[in-house]
Write a structure and sequence with these properties.
About 40% of the residues lie in helices and about 15% in strands. Bound molecules: flavin mononucleotide.
């Protein structure tokens, strides 16, 4: 079960929360949450910090483009923790560092897990705005 504090941040009915909790705790979502397509993103080891930002931008656009085409996605950093297993399975060269996995497919609207809504922190919590009026702070 999610703790009270976490449950508040995951509005949705109890069943949807339980399904999410089960999938995350039991297997970290490494079944790609049942999606038909699983992507593994990796970055070349020689890349510097700036290029890690580029991979993040790539990921963000990938998710947005999928959404635009009616596909649902779930970025999953948890895959990075399974680096050795994935490397062996995909015969991934040593020069690649596993960044994350992405589940992709058409969302099953009837699946309880898809009723879960993840809240967002208010802008004031995630961003420090300087030189703008107070109206931009929330
Ligand atoms: C870089 C990144 C890594 C993430 N890693 C995981 C993860 O390992 N497992 C997971 O269930 N969700 C992970 N998430 C969260 C989901 O991808 C998704 O954003 C979240 O469930 C919120 O869904 P929503 O955007 O539809 O509200 C990650 C998100 C991002 C951006």
């Amino acid at each position: 079960m999610l703790s009270g504090e976490t449950a508040k941040r995951f509005p949705g009915d109890e069943t949807s929360r339980q399904h999410f909790d089960q999938s995350l705790v039991q297997n970290c979502g490494v079944d790609f949450y049942g999606a038909p397509v699983g992507l593994i993103l990796a970055i070349d080891r020689t890349m510097e910090r700036g290029q890690w930002a580029d991979v993040g931008i790539y990921l963000a656009h990938l998710l947005l483009l999928a959404e635009e085409r009616g596909l649902a996605t779930c970025a999953q950093a948890a895959w990075a923790g399974m680096n050795q297993t994935v490397r062996a399975f995909l015969d991934m060269p040593e020069e690649y560092i596993l960044y994350c996995g992405v589940s992709m497919g058409y969302a099953d609207q009837d699946a309880p897990i898809n009723r879960l809504r993840i809240g967002r922190e208010p802008l004031a919590v995630t961003t420090e705005m300087r030189g703008f009026g107070a109206e931009f702070a929330s």
